[in-house]
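Sample intake sheet
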Amino acid sequence: MQNRLLNILERDASLSIEELAVRLNSDPETVRGMMRQLVAERKILGYQAIIPETSNTQTKVKALIEVKITPRREGGFDTPAKRIARFPEVTDLALVSGSCDLFVNVQGNSLQEVATFIAEKLATIDGVISTATTFQLKHYKIAGRTLDGDEKADRLAVCP
C-alpha cells in the first residue's frame, strides 16, 4: 500500500488525508501513519507546488550546468557532488553518463549572479575539470504538466 500511496502523491500531493484514504480503500489514521513513516524513512522529502514562471512576480535566471569531474580515489564522484549540493544556488544535482559527469541546475536573481556562482564557487572546487552552461529561456512542461493548460494527449497520425 505504501507504493500506491507514493504513486498517488507523486501525481497530486495536494490531496487531503481523507481523499488519500478513499483512494487507498483505507482509513485516514492508517494513511497518516504511513505518511509519517515515509517521511521518517526519507522516502518523502517534501511537497512542492508547480508554479509557472508567468505566475511568479520574481523572475529567476535558471541554468543547467554540465560539469566534468576527476573522480577521487576515496569517494569517487560523491565527494565533489556533496560539496556542490551544499550551495544554495543549486536546485538539482545528478550524476549522469555521457559527455559530462554531473548535471547541476542552478538559479539566481540575475545572469551575473549565476555567472559569478560558476566562476567563483563551482569552477574552483577541487576535481572540477570544466563546465558548460545552458540558460533556460522558457518552460513548456514542468513535472509532467504542460504549461499551456492543454493536458489532453494529441496523438500523431500513424502512416504505414
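Comment: The chain has a mean pLDDT of 87. The first helix runs from residue 2 to 11.
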